[in-house]
Batch of 3 targets.
Target 1
Amino acid sequence: MPGLLARWRQWLRGRKQKLIRAGENMPLLLISYPRDGEAAAAELETAYAHTLPAMGGQARRLYDSLWPALPAIVVVQLRPSNPCGCLGHHHPPGSESRLARRLASELGHAVAEIDLAYESIRSWCPEPLSSLAVGAGAAEMEALRFRAALLAVLLHEMEHLAFPDRSEPEIRSRSREFYRQAMAEMVAQELGRDYGIA
Ligand SMILES: [Zn+2]
Ligand SMILES: [Zn+2]
């Protein structure tokens, strides 16, 4: 992989790449991002490689069946926002970027691809403000919310890739549930507080 990326540097100029390894059975992520997307790429790396594998209970189990249904590498195109306003998309077979298509042909196997709009995800607020952890600082809650939301949208789009016949409401209800559980776990672990409406 490092050799591949070095050879492509000229062709990929203007964007940077980062390869992320996470838990066993989870696909590698090849993140492609603009120069000012460094912080968002680092946040996604922390979320996918550390936060998600460390989650104990219900949140992670929601996606147990996802990993075996995905190819070994998923390309993630990071953008600040999408012209259509969506938080992310999955790219069905045949609609992948040149990066994903070239990677697939060099590796000789399938590569899946999604995109994530990190500034839109940052300002997305799926839970009412009343459910924020009591007493936690705004900045620390904001950081956790961004991490949980990045994971929720990533997993949502990955589920579309893995199970193309599943309906949007089914996939959406799972990703909302994941977001809720992930926030509860992260707030308890990192801030030592209860999250949610008592
Ligand atoms: Zn869209
Ligand atoms: Zn969807």
Note: The pocket of zinc ion (ligand 1) is lined by residues 82, 84, 86, 89 (CB under 6 Å).
Target 2
Amino acid sequence: MLELVPYDEALSRYEPVIGLETHVELGTVTKMFCGCPTTFGLPPNTAVCPVCLGLPGSLPVTNRAAIEYTITIGLALNCTIATWCRFARKNYFYPDMPKNFQISQYDEPLCTDGFLDVVVEGQSFRIGIERVHLEEDTGKSLHVGGATGRIHGADYSLVDYNRAGIPLVEVVTKPVVGTGSLAPVVGRAYVTELRDLLRSLGVSDVRMEEGSLRCDVNTSLAPPGAPEWGTRTETKNVNSLRSVERAIRFEISRQAGVLDAGGRVVQETRHFHEDNGSTTSGRSKEEAQDYRYFPEPDLVPLAPPPDWVDSLRAALPELPAARRARLQAEWALSDREMAVLLNLGALDLIGETIGAGSAPADAYKWWTGELARQANQAGVELPEVGVSPAQVARVAELVKSGTLNDKLARQVLEGILAGEGSPDEIVAARGLAVVSDEGVLAEAVDAAIAANPDIAAKIRDGKVAAAGALVGAVMKATRGQADATRARELILQRLA
Ligand SMILES: [Zn+2]
């Protein structure tokens, strides 16, 4: 039985090298080589035709929009765009691939040699991009009757070809070295940044849970300073950001166990298990020669004219890194505050709250404070917490105008979460407005002084700091609704 080595211990003896291969389904209207729709969730085998079913005599025609999207991705990743390249046939048999070959790109990818920068714990890492190439997706097998959803133990299998032929871009990194113990976090940060980049380009809906963004994670270990990297494993189809991090962590612990025991890591694909974060052996890894690649004879070569590439470059939108830097400056946030906000996924929420009229500092305070706490308590991500940016902006406005104090504002937010309506409706229904009526306040102040003669005496003797206790009593008596600043003024006046 293999011993897992605790993560920190593994890192004290070995250097990890990781690599990521990310598949992105493009958001084109039609498939890569035919006119079938790419809509997700259609009834099985309804979005198919002779081309994507691989029927004899059918011929593929390249989807121009898919080429355009791929070049756009390559440009955003600082790649060189090929002036001439070809599709290749990747030959293998699998039931979800009706042609028994996949049209892909092999030694002539459309985009090469780029990079993407990610920041982890204040440290910037430049992730090299080896290549960005275009291919077609396979269909989907469904194994019925087993406990695991895998083919082993299943009673029978069904296959759905709706996905077969959807344009798929593969983004392959160069080996990522020098990350040390941050390797799993860097891997996750890279996929997050890539997802945000693709979303900003509008080329894919990048939904990991629907499989439109899927990640294969390569991991290897070697002793520090070793002349060669270790043998890598490829954990397939990791389908959440958190799982990317967990898969790398697990492989580091597992491979350290193999190496410590004097064994050799086997080059293979591995399956990731969401439930316990482990990986198990899949199949031994094919070599390129097993696929008998050759140039696709049914398609003409691809030669994007330079002026087309230039026009796509000119049309690139503001990319996430540039946008973050701009917003951080506009909102006057520190690096630490920016990191907090990004960790919470609150960038757009805060942007929309400011757009609805809130000051940046207020938007930041409510989303990263009370609302982050509420989301955490409910076990949901911040955008799903159940309060809209417009509502937060209105609450901030009510605080600014003196109608609410922070404590009452929190009650209003609770009311929104409880489904009691808009901020104004909740203020009215719960009677939450701040009490600044002099008569009511004066009464509460006098009562607080009368009830706390010892504290009152201290304040008379000049211990002004003791006034806080009386303000507290006033707040309690008015159920938090007193104007605390005014109450303090009145207390000090009375006891001067
Ligand atoms: Zn089709």
Note: The chain has three domains: 7-314, 320-407, 438-494.
Target 3
Amino acid sequence: MKRIVGRHAEYKKLESNILQISQEAKAAKKKYTDVIDATVGMLHKEDGNVLKYDVVDDVLHGLSDSETYHYAPVRGTKDFTEGVFNWVFGDNAENIRKSFKYSIIPTTGGSGAISNSFYNFNDFNQKVLLPNYYWSPYQNFALEANVDLKTFLMYDELYKFNATDFKEKALELAQEQERLCVLLNDPSNNPTGLCMTKDDWKEVIATLNQVNRLGVPVILIHDIAYIDYQMKDQKYSREIFEAYLDLDEDILAIVVFSGSKTFSLYGFRVGAQIGLSKSQEIIDNFLRVGDYSVRARFSSVSQPGMNIIGKIFTHPEYKARYLKELNNATTLLKARASLFLEEAEKHDLQILPYCGGFFISVPTKNKNIFKDLVEDHVYVIAMQDIIRVAISSLCVDEIPELVRKIKKHI
Ligand SMILES: Cc1ncc(COP(=O)(O)O)c(C=O)c1O
């Protein structure tokens, strides 16, 4: 047989892909009435349909032909980019503007942002440092970019963020490869539901500064996909960014925004990379390679997707409607999470501490947990020594039965 694919592509094979397992769950649901599908990272309503925001729908249907069909500018519109910046940093936006140079590059979802960042800010065969529990597509982004992953322990023995192991592994990797590229998905981590505290972030940044002072390039990729679904009040949801102010001058932080999660625009493929640094030269480089990769890899980003987001951020009446609907969405998630926690306590089921987001994780020693649960008509995502339960796609009534079945097989 001729070697039809390039050598570098020989390794490519999507394995136990989350989307594929979701398809299996959907098929099973058509066959049996008692199937529980807790696989999908899309927020669903109690009636089983995807939760779409009415204001998003209204703005979408009011777009003009040029706002829908034309090619979008590679750098997006100001309404979109500045709107995303203000939304992401909230009360800290002015402070961040004053302290940093910045640039915003629209991308095809958070995925496009992470994929481009891996590619542009590492040498081939280098490693990106991230916690030992992570969203599995990071692996695909890494291999596609010819880089690898190295993990540190997410938790200490008290199930708090393990700043000590982070520091140890960061210093080790920086010395080994003379570059440190870190990826953290916070708050409302996928898969664990962890929310790091402002002090955790201060410790992370102190380590990044320490590495930076060794003369090593330091890049922080901060994936905030689930920032809007924390269990804390919206007012406090952006306070972690106060820690950013301590970043040394020549560190590059890339904050990754996902329009899929914030606006339920999953199918539109819209997101952004926000590059921040105290050095203008670093931001110039960020923009230079970022612009290039957008054009080279996906040309530009969804025109209607960006326009919907830009309009919601710039029209006060749309924004007010969105905030109200977002509050309803988090209330829905809260109800599911509280019941899950209550039931877990009732059945003495240990779960990882949950502070927000679409997922709750349960530690397990059962290597066959995925199969055992499928036999019991329950679909979750199994990873190393945990199972990830997507409360985003469950309805409240399913939770007691789900917890009971998990406890049975765990
Ligand atoms: C942790 C995390 N980051 C980023 C994303 C990116 O999503 P998208 O590319 O749809 O914006 C997801 C989606 O599931 C996610 O779970």
Note: The domain at 67-317 is CATH 3.40.640.10 (Aspartate Aminotransferase; domain 2).
